[in-house]
Design a protein that fits this description.
By secondary structure, the protein is α+β, with helices and mostly antiparallel strands. The protein is built from 14 helices and six strands. Strands 1, 2, 3, 4, 5 and 6 form a six-stranded antiparallel beta sheet that branches. The radius of gyration is 21 Å and the shape is globular.
């Protein structure tokens, strides 16, 4: 009889990226619905990916799942300690996501303050550079201004990227135009064809090699993405990126709103405001404040099922693919207040 020598590490490595992310979120205590909202995927996908991940990891109970995830993270931390990112020591913030962490961005007076504050937030989460890009369609044309590109990527790389029209081959841009969920970069992402591989080699030469991208989409914005990066192997940094994505997604929505303070887009580009009921507004406001469905239900003296019903209506009215995108759009449309 053969002897099975599979370890949690090798079993975990055999999972797909989505299965790995779902496994860690399950270990963190998130419900299937919360995972679906966070990743921007269907509840059916979460359940199927969860079932496969737990079966392959050979765990069933919440205690066993949490223990397995803890050991994986501990082992990963030991490995990363021997393989640090080039030129720096990483301290990655994993504190709970809350809008108050970013609300001050809306109170800044000019673009230089926004650049400096965003840079500090990104670095506090363990990354070196960021870049925000937005293109807004207005009645078939393109509304552009000097602030549609904003960030700390090396200027030489930005100019090279634009002059060579790299947006036409960049896999990250392709993802943002086709999907609404955040993306963790990987070596495989940039190895699907020779053009992408050559493009990635150039980016790596400028220290842009590992990171992720969060994007906001609505009927008027063709592309609005926020990328963050550091100089490290993409696969080695992937776990840090996945843990950081929720905070980065919220940061993206606040940067988008803050930039509108300096360069307000024409109101026509966002269309008329959706009509929300009082209960829908009450649930939305508390979701914006960071409460989960159970906490909202307790505050409003209603059931969690009713909360999900109202927030489901809000998501539909806003055309949002996830809870995070719903909150982001609500911020942009002024439907919630701090």
């Amino acid at each position: 009889m053969p002897v099975h020598t599979s370890t949690p590490k090798t079993m975990f490595a055999a999972l797909t990226q989505t299965q790995q992310t779902v496994f860690h979120l399950v270990a963190d205590g998130l419900t299937n619905q919360q995972i679906a909202d966070r990743l921007g995927i269907s509840l059916y996908q979460v359940k199927s990916q969860r079932a496969v991940a737990l079966e392959r990891m050979n765990v069933r109970t919440p205690t066993a799942i949490a223990a397995q995830a803890y050991r994986l993270r501990a082992d990963e931390g030991k490995e990363n300690a021997h393989q640090p990112a080039v030129g720096s020591t990483r301290v990655v913030s994993t504190s709970p996501l809350h809008p108050d962490d970013f609300f001050h961005l809306l109170e800044l007076k000019d673009i230089s303050q926004l650049l400096s504050s965003t840079d500090k937030l990104v670095r506090s989460m363990g990354f070196d550079n960021f870049f925000f890009a937005s293109r807004i369609d207005l009645k078939g044309g393109v509304f552009e201004n000097e602030f549609t590109r904003f960030g700390t990527y090396p200027e030489r790389w930005v100019k090279r990227y634009e002059s060579r029209n790299y947006d036409s081959i960049d896999p990250v841009v392709r993802h943002c135009r086709q999907h609404s969920y955040p993306l963790t970069w990987s070596n495989h992402l940039f190895a699907t064809d020779q053009e992408s591989a050559d493009f990635y080699e150039e980016a790596r030469a400028f220290g842009i090699s590992a990171g992720g991208t969060c994007n906001l989409l609505n009927d008027s914005v063709n592309f609005s993405g926020f990328s963050f990066s550091r100089n490290q192997d993409a696969d080695l940094a992937a776990s840090d990126v996945r843990r950081t994505l929720p905070r980065m997604y919220m940061l993206t929505s606040y940067i988008h709103e803050a930039l509108r303070h300096f360069v307000p887009a024409p109101t026509e580009s966002y269309g008329s405001l959706p009509r929300l009921t009082d209960q829908e507004r009450a649930c939305l406001q508390r979701a914006f404040s960071g409460l989960n469905d159970g906490e909202i239900a307790e505050r409003l003296k209603i059931t969690s099922r009713t909360v999900r019903f109202h927030l489901g209506n809000v998501r539909q009215k806003l055309g949002a693919a996830s809870r995070a995108q719903m909150v982001a759009k609500a911020i942009l449309l002024g439907l919630v207040s701090g």
